[in-house]
UniProtKB/TrEMBL annotation, chain A:
<feature type="domain" description="FAD/NAD(P)-binding">
    <location>
        <begin position="8"/>
        <end position="313"/>
    </location>
</feature>
<dbReference type="InterPro" id="IPR051691">
    <property type="entry name" value="Metab_Enz_Cyan_OpOx_G3PDH"/>
</dbReference>
<feature type="domain" description="SoxA A3">
    <location>
        <begin position="380"/>
        <end position="453"/>
    </location>
</feature>
<dbReference type="InterPro" id="IPR023753">
    <property type="entry name" value="FAD/NAD-binding_dom"/>
</dbReference>
<dbReference type="InterPro" id="IPR036188">
    <property type="entry name" value="FAD/NAD-bd_sf"/>
</dbReference>
<dbReference type="InterPro" id="IPR041854">
    <property type="entry name" value="BFD-like_2Fe2S-bd_dom_sf"/>
</dbReference>
<keyword id="KW-0560">Oxidoreductase</keyword>
TrEMBL record, chain B:
<feature type="region of interest" description="Disordered">
    <location>
        <begin position="367"/>
        <end position="391"/>
    </location>
</feature>
<dbReference type="InterPro" id="IPR036188">
    <property type="entry name" value="FAD/NAD-bd_sf"/>
</dbReference>
<feature type="domain" description="FAD dependent oxidoreductase">
    <location>
        <begin position="8"/>
        <end position="351"/>
    </location>
</feature>
<dbReference type="GO" id="GO:0005737">
    <property type="term" value="C:cytoplasm"/>
</dbReference>
<dbReference type="Pfam" id="PF01266">
    <property type="entry name" value="DAO"/>
</dbReference>
<protein>
    <submittedName>
        <fullName>Sarcosine oxidase subunit beta</fullName>
    </submittedName>
</protein>
<dbReference type="GO" id="GO:0016491">
    <property type="term" value="F:oxidoreductase activity"/>
</dbReference>
Automatic annotation (TrEMBL), chain C:
<dbReference type="InterPro" id="IPR036010">
    <property type="entry name" value="2Fe-2S_ferredoxin-like_sf"/>
</dbReference>
<dbReference type="Pfam" id="PF13510">
    <property type="entry name" value="Fer2_4"/>
</dbReference>
<dbReference type="InterPro" id="IPR042204">
    <property type="entry name" value="2Fe-2S-bd_N"/>
</dbReference>
<dbReference type="GO" id="GO:0016491">
    <property type="term" value="F:oxidoreductase activity"/>
</dbReference>
<keyword id="KW-0560">Oxidoreductase</keyword>
<dbReference type="GO" id="GO:0051536">
    <property type="term" value="F:iron-sulfur cluster binding"/>
</dbReference>
<protein>
    <submittedName>
        <fullName>2Fe-2S iron-sulfur cluster binding domain-containing protein</fullName>
    </submittedName>
</protein>
Amino acid sequence: MSNAVRPLIVGAGPAGIRAAQALVEAGLKPIVVDEAASGGGQIYRQRLAPDKRTPRDLYGSEASKATALHETFARIRDKIEYFPQTLVWNVRGTSADVAIDGRTRRLDFSHLILATGATDRIVPFHGWTIPGVFTLGGAQIALKSQGCAIGEQVVFLGSGPLLYLVAWQYVKAGARVAAVLDTAPFSAKLNLLRGLPSQPGVVLRGMRYVAELMARGIPVHFGVEPDRIEGEARVEGIVWRERGKERRLACDAVGYGFALRSETQLADLAGCRFVFDERDRAWRPERDMAGRTSVSGVYIAGDGAGIAGADAAELAGERASLALLEDAGYAVNRERVAVLERGLAGIQRFRDILEIAFPFPDKWAASVADDVLLCRCEEISVGQARAAMREQEVRELNRLKALTRVGMGRCQGRICACAAAEILADVHGQPLEAAGRLRAQPPIKPIPLGIAADGEAA
Amino acid sequence: MSRTLHKDVAIIGGGLVGSSAALALRRMGFSVVLLDKGYCGAQASGVNYGGVRRQGRPPEQIALSQRAHAIWPRLKEVIGIDGEFVRSGHLKIARTEAEMASLEAYAARVADLGLGLELVGHNQLRERFPWIAGNIVGASLCQGDGHANPRLVSAAFALAARRAGADVLEHTPVSHVEKVPEGFHLSTGPGIEIKAQFVINSAGAWADSFAEAFGEPVPLSRIYPSMIVTEPVSVFMSANIGAEGGGIYARQVDRGNCIVGGMRGEPNTDLDFSRPTGSGAVTIMNRAAALFPALRNSYAIRFWSGTEGEMADRNPVIGFSRTTPNLIHAFGFSGAGFQIAPGVGEVLAELVRDGASRTPIEAFAIDRFSRKDQGSPAGSTPEPQERDISK
Amino acid sequence: MALLKRLARHELPPISFTLNGTVCTGRVGDTVLTAILTQADQLRLSDFSGSPRAGFCQMGACQDCWVMTSDGERIRACSTALEPGMNLRTFAEQRS
């Protein structure tokens, strides 16, 4: 049986690694393809070369989880077929096109587990493309992987757990954080107390981050409405409104983001049906508790299946593999399945609380000025998009892309599509889900024209 | 939400042909409803390569093509935008002596039709188009041809028709159409009923079922031309490029992106949509990198393909039904509809108004396939738009 | 001039590379993005308005950190490791 079962796992973050481990433990040899040079995903990203910093320095309270995950991946390394620094740029039927070291080849699979993770959810402001403005995730990678702060006077802005975590990590590492600007009111944070009984560790840790930031005299502002980032060649300051008053702060870098958005292109190319997720304010692949998608043999786990965080990703990765094994005729441990599903359900409940504590800035779409750049690849402004929506009655993202180029550039809408959907909803007074989602098109990331084509892999 | 519309003309299919017909008919004063099962121009009309090219068409298409040729530079006036139309010239390259001979023969055949073709030898080609690499024997240049942006042009024709007073009903598939004594009766998915004096069947790759409903089966198949687009690079490509014998066609837009085609995609599970194959896309990319050294280091950022109707003889069907009065067909453009569509729209409007068109369209009669004794009325083997050597 | 500020990894061995014709030093384990932005404050000019860009997501998603090598190759700076002798250019080629 195992000869016919040749699972492909895309992504070697928490979900992908735990998925691979479960398959290895069942005696299978999965293929694992990952864009990074080493396993861990974004959250537990590893350095390109070791340095003096300890796991505790790098991953803080999550150090033991990170280390355990890295060790697991090292342990199963010779029991999997591992392709690091490899991009899956297309999926069709039971084969994937992968780009590896300037060559492209086809990998055939019997089952597919997509553990493609997430990136920061972004909305544009004036000045968001100025050098020195990074996503929160980008700011965190600069620090963890590269040992660099994004500037000398850093402002962190946005909404979401990552806002305080990254600010705190910067402070711990010796960077100067000029301010933390939270777009949600302080009152929203009180909802976190409802999460205390189920996730006391997470809640208390979050509170500690805020308390420590404040104790060090770092200004933390709530209810912030960002107006603009100033500067031309580089960041010089940030301007926002707070309780009706305009405030300005000098800084040379801004890290910002509003929680995360799932990477779903491959699920789309694999033919998975999508559903609208109110909590994520986004369309995501439809899946059952185990991670089965609407396409037989295709499973999805981790933040790519809807945002739930790293702990959930580890559980979901293993759960998806157990589903795969069960579907392929292997006996699986029902008790383990129950444990995983209980864990996932608990995290899902907590996610609802987090969403209330770290809400999306839902006034943004109505207030963002016409001259703000919406699509940073194609350099299309909010005003150009709004004009097409109004004058050509554009109500849907793919139509918006066709008529204005929003989402048509190198990033394929990863950065701007969420914001564009919010603007569509605002302009037409329609529910967010009516904007639909950009259809994925291969290659899901750019590939070189001269890429050499290998024969089909065995 | 059942309602009934009474119109002079109902047009099935909001592609470029249907939209331009709707616009032309409105300008003549007819009442029009334009129906599309999805968005207007979302299929082949909107996602084709964007070649605005007369060169290479069979002689019987040239009169129609010339009529359209006069419309393209006036787009701004006709539909409100220029559609990124550029008169860049269309350069058809020959990679072998035989291909060059074929280009020469074509040039002779259409010499009197006003295309102004210029045959370019190897040395001159090197001088005038130094950005083309490889062992090119020669080429044929049609200076007046060019390219435009299909995404914008198709949608703009539909919008212009709407602004001119046409009822444009998107997401409104026609579920049933029949001849009734007072004209036609159409039923649509959303429950709108339509009574019309005339019906134009411009349903592209979906037109055969409507033709068949009126007893006119046609040899229409589906093709899925696929394209790749590069990231923006310095503008170097001064002409729209085709190749005798097919395999590659390429153009560069002002913003710097190069659009390259030459292979076919495959239908999706939903047969109305298609996707390039991975290997086909890589083949196109490699061909482009080889032919255009300026692209050697650039990246492909997106692939796509469209669903297009192709006739067995690669000529469209344009003209009145032979079974049903006041039914007009216009479909099957076989990968070469973009340039002539605005001309076809005017012709269709004339057919409604006058019962005949001032542009000859006899070669495109729907009954040409049943008149086997006469052979092809075109009397020639038509030149495909961009021949696909992969099949 | 530098955009990024090194807080750690000072101890790693230096790597020489060339940036816009000037010899610079990075560290083992640097990405191309880090190596450049600890020396300079931009990676490229945007395609259409020519405004300066210096990356954004640092995780290979936004595609805003493409730089060029002296022989015209393109490199996504955030996901490419710095190698000794790399000859990098941060200015975009002028498009007309």
